[in-house]
Each structure stands twice: as C-alpha cells, then as structure tokens.
Amino acid sequence: MISLIDTHSHLDTSAFDSDRDAVLAAALKAGVHAIVLIGYDPERWRSTSDLCQRYPFLVRAVGVHPNSASIWSPSVQQLLEREVASGTVIAIGETGLDFFREHADPALQLAAFRAQLALAKTCGLPIIIHQRAAEAEVLATLAEFAPLRGVMHCFSGDTLFANQCRGFGLHLGIGGVATYPKSIAVREAVAHVPISSLLLETDAPYLAPQSRRGKRNEPAFLIETLETVAEVRDEPQESVADATTENAEQLFGPTLAAARAAGMDSALCRW
Is the per-residue pLDDT at 269 higher than 90? Predict the structure, then answer.
C-alpha cells in the first residue's frame, strides 16, 4: 500500500470550511496518511492547533510568512518562541523572502527570516523556506546559518539551485508545479538529485497539479505529483512513495511518524 505524507498544506483556511471532513477522508483514501499544516501567522497558529487536536494524522509548523512580515516585532518573536516552546510543533515556517509580490518591506522580511532561522537552529527544529524571485538573497542568508535541516518549499528552480539548497542541508519540496508543462527545469532537477533529497507536498488549496490546474488543490491530489516524480526518475511509484515518506519522517521526527500511523489506522477503519 502506498503511504504518502503531504509535507505542506493549508487545510485550516476558509477554502475548506464547507467540506474539510470530506477532503480529509479523500486524502486518507488516496493514501495520504499524514499532513503537515503550515501556520504562517499568529491567527494560523491557533487554527492549525485546533485542527491538530481534532485529527490525529495532522501535525503543524508555525512561523511568519514573508508576505506577513509587516507584523514582525519583538513581541511577535516572543509569541512565536512561546508557541515553539509548547512542544506541539514539528518545524519553524514557513518563512523566507518573497520579492515577487512584496507585500512586506524586504528589510522586514529579511529580519523575520533571520530570526526564524536562528530560532530553528536554537531549538533543533527543521526550517520550512518560501522563496519567490529571491533566490540569490535566500541563498546568501542561508549561508549565514548553514548547516541547516529543512525544506525549500514549492521548489521551482533548476538543478543548480537544487544542489545549492542541498549543500546547505535542505530537502526539496516537490508539488504541483512539477507537473506543469513549462516546468522543464524543475523536472530535470527532480530527475538528477538523490531521492533522499525529495519531499512531496501540495500547498493546498494553492498550486493544484496540471489535471486540476486553476482549481482548489487538495492533499489527495498529491498522487499526481508522485506520478510525475516517478516518471521523470524512471522509478516505480511505490519506491518513490516509500523514499519520500521516509525522508519526511527522518526530517520532521517521531511526531510525524506517529501521525502517519494514526492516519493509516484511520484509513483502514474508513474514517
């Protein structure tokens, strides 16, 4: 049986308010047995916590997204440190730099990014990194804190960028972008890096795979990304599923492994 982990999802957002139970049931049926929820600002820290208490196959990361960096302050940093100290999170993030939209001043983004990298190092937790139109700046910042444990979320670069990320200790989060016809460089990177560097993710409700592009994304659709990764690597889907699931559990630790076990039990019981 294929058993997958969606390592990046936003199931707590309003996009799922009308049918969240059905979406989770569909994920389990598809073999997605654990899901990492990303609490990207204080409001989402609360909503992800609520969902994780309700569903044993959900876990969460917390941080401040670069597009929310305008809220960053010493008091927000203290709140984040307190949330991490609760022992209920498996990673810091998503954080990083986004110079495509620039919802927040780049200097504030960089300050928040550096602080969260430092927190992850101090706490021994993985870091989940968002970058858009900021490759050089992200790499320069990572160099200050390397070596790291974490993931370059929504990997959309080429093989050179992939290897630079790996050199800092990061995994590559592969999602729906890899299935798009124009994502040739992404697929080349996926084909050439070691399988030990790859994680699977959806970023649901965003970035649905090609067959559902433009529609709401869901964890169950992770299967299409699995199919693409297996095809470009010329490997069986089962072996890619096993490897990426093992990678996720090694990176994020026993809490995620326990969540997947709970998800497998729930799937067998037709939750």
Answer: no
pLDDT in tens, 194-230: 999 999 999 999 999 999 999 999 999 999 999 999 9
User: What residues contact residue 74 under an 8 Å CB cut-off, 6+ apart?
Assistant: none
Tell me which residue of 195, 179, 188 sits closest to 239, measured CA to CA. Answer: 195
Q: Which helix (H) or strand (E) holds 170?
A: strand 170-174
| pLDDT 10s digits, 82-100 | 999 999 999 999 999 999 8
CATH number for the domain formed by residue range(s) 4-268: 3.20.20.140
Taking the CA of residue 132 as centre, how many other CA atoms within 13 Å lie in the half-sphere pointing to its CB? 13
Q: How far apart are CA 174 and CA 153, in angstroms?
A: 7
Per the CB < 8 A criterion, the answer to whether 74 and 47 are in contact is: no
Cβ neighbours around 75 below 10 Å, total: 9
pLDDT digits (tens, 9 = 90+) for 3-25: 999 999 999 999 999 999 999 99
Rounded Cα distance, 183 and 181, in Å: 6
Q: Could you give the count of Cα atoms lying within 13 Å of 129 in the half-sphere of its Cβ?
A: 33
Residues 6+ apart with CB under 8 A from 218: 23, 26, 27, 202, 204, 205, 208
pTM above 0.85? yes
